[in-house]
Amino acid sequence: MSLPVYLVDDDDAVREALSLLLRTVGLQVRGFSSPEGLLASVGGLAPGCLVLDIRMPTMSGLKLQTTLIDRGINWPTVVISGHGDIEACRRAFRNGAIDFLGKPVDEQDLIDAIQKGHDALEQQQRHTAEASEAHDLISRLTQREAEVLEMVAKGLTTRQISDALGLSARTVDSHRAAIAAKTGTASTAEQTRLWLDGRTRR
């Protein structure tokens, strides 16, 4: 678990105790005493897992969660609360929280939740990298080749593509060969995956 953890809690004792706990299991932790502190710094932070107290004087953890999402920062979030607020729990999960823990926080539950968050973030980063690579590969294609790729991905045969585009089957095959050469794909399955990954970037 090498990705950072950002802990936001206005209670100094809780924040320091949880930070110490997480550091003892090898996690990088940065604590913030207020949501505003995190928001002021977040632009320079590496992606990580957020641990947010739900009740803070100036801004709730839920409000901080939605503010970050509005800024395009959708990092895995663990929400902690000492009040057992079921509606707040529902709202947190609707906003994408990966866990909701009551205070006093069970140490192992918190560590497990952060591990889950790191796994989710790593998967998200892999998907982003794959989408970016696919987008770059597809950008090498001509407009006609991109059209052919889309039809291949939708399961159309060479004959169906030639009929749809008014091209000969030989020309479609030439386009498919060019797509394979430019993108390094060797099969219809690989080209379909490429098109789907590239579409997620749009």
What assembly state would you assign to the polypeptide chains in this entry? single chain
- Give the low-pLDDT segments: none
| Spatial shape | elongated
First-residue to last-residue Cα separation: 31 Å
State the strand order across the main sheet.
Answer: 2-1-3-4-5
Q: Structural class of the secondary structure composition?
A: alpha/beta
Task: Report the C-alpha radius of gyration, rounded.
Answer: 23 Å
- What is the overall number of helices? 9
* Structure summary, number of beta strands: 5
Overall average pLDDT? 91
Main sheet attributes: strand count, strand direction, barrel closure: 5 strands, parallel
DSSP helix fraction: 55-70%
Which CATH C-level class of the largest domain is it?
Answer: Alpha Beta
- Could you name the CATH homologous superfamily of the largest domain? Response regulator
Q: Give the number of domains.
A: 2
> What series of H and E elements makes up the topology?
EHEHEHEHEHHHHH
What is the CATH topology of the largest domain? Answer: Rossmann fold
What descriptors fit this protein?
single chain; 202 residues; alpha/beta; Rossmann fold; Arc Repressor Mutant, subunit A; elongated
Written overview of the protein:
This protein has 202 residues and is of the alpha/beta class. It has two domains: 5-126, Response regulator (Rossmann fold, 3-Layer(aba) Sandwich); 139-201, Winged helix-like DNA-binding domain superfamily/Winged helix DNA-binding domain (Arc Repressor Mutant, subunit A, Orthogonal Bundle). It has nine helices and five strands. Helix 3 (61-70) links the parallel strand 3 (49-53) and strand 4 (77-81). Helix 5 packs across helix 9, helix 6 packs across helix 8 (169-183) and helix 7 (158-165) packs across helix 8 (169-183).
